[in-house]
Design brief:
Number of strands: 11
Order of helices and strands: HEHEHEEEEHEHEHEEEHH
Structural class: alpha/beta
Number of domains: 1
Largest sheet: 9 strands, mixed
Number of helices: 8
Radius of gyration: 19 Å
Strand content: 15-25%
Length: 285
């Protein structure tokens, strides 16, 4: 049986031409997007999706045009967070897909608008049996189709909510290309910090810009006493070698879909968004 390395050229599949064509289609679709920022962590359960949604809202409060691509195909949550789970993507007059929009005008592209939560998201494999390798290939192919088909229009920021996994962070950096910058999310947990460190190391091996990180759930907001109380044992701030955009407490109101942040939490999120926007502008060519 031949291995991949025994195949001469592309084996007649014309895969190179297809990849080039897809890249060109994506470039055209994103041509009016000023900044692409992927929000990752490497660790699940750090509140990355909620934080992505709230940063988008904070950027929107600054008068900026913002959209979110939910790249977590197997666990999409942005549609619910934005209140557009019942608003699927629809074809526009030119054949492209029109984004769903939240009440505050943020564009949202999420599989959560296409597949009911009671159903699993399935990607048929091109080989028999379960193959995570081929599944990942199909997932990236689907994301490429979305990026190229959606009419993103003029945007200041496209935030891309990534799935967990340090290795996935590297894969998405390669897939999204060097024009996509990254922001990582951690928590005060030593376990989370260790995994985020691996994501930092992975991104160091790419041409992508790592703008900074946000420490989420640094405490919890107590509405009754209007204070932030400890959630994890106190520890020194991590040394990831990149800027910290802010420390955000767990806010019970934000745990509810569509919840409104407490004023103090909202101020912190506005600060995170301001520092992110400034870093993106400074790093732009």
């Amino acid at each position: 049986m031949k291995s991949y390395y025994d195949i001469v050229g592309d084996g007649g599949s014309k895969i190179v031409e297809q990849v080039v064509e897809q890249r060109e289609r994506i470039a055209r679709s994103l041509s009016a997007v000023r900044h692409r920022v992927a929000v990752g962590s490497g660790k699940g359960g750090v509140g990355k999706s909620t934080l992505t949604s709230e940063i988008a809202r904070a950027l929107r409060r600054r008068g900026l045009g913002v959209a979110i691509l939910d790249a977590d195909l197997n666990g999409p949550s942005q549609a619910r967070l934005a209140g557009v789970a019942a608003a699927p993507l629809v074809p526009g007059p030119d054949g492209g897909l029109c984004m769903s929009r939240s009440a505050d005008g943020i564009g949202v592209v999420s599989v959560g608008s296409l597949v009911p939560e009671s159903q699993a998201v399935e990607f048929d494999s091109v080989v028999g049996g379960d193959s995570h390798i081929w599944r990942a290939t199909r997932e990236f192919a689907f994301l490429g189709q979305l990026l190229g088909a959606v009419r993103w229009g003029e945007l200041d920021f496209l935030l891309i909510d990534l799935p967990p996994g340090a290795e996935r962070t590297y894969q998405y950096a390669e897939f999204l290309g060097p024009d996509t910058a990254f922001v990582l999310v951690s928590t005060p947990s030593e376990l989370a910090r260790g995994i985020v460190s691996r994501s930092v190391a992975a991104l160091r091996g790419t041409p992508n810009r790592l703008l900074g990180y946000v420490e989420n759930m640094c405490g919890y907001y107590c509405a009754g006493c209007d204070e932030v109380r400890p959630l994890f044992p106190e520890s020194e701030a991590p040394d990831f070698g990149v800027a910290c955009f802010g420390r955000v407490p767990f806010d019970p109101e934000l745990a509810r879909s569509g919840g409104t942040a407490a004023p103090g939490t909202r101020d912190l999120l506005d600060g995170v968004a301001a520092r992110l926007a400034s870093a993106a502008e400074q790093e732009s060519p």
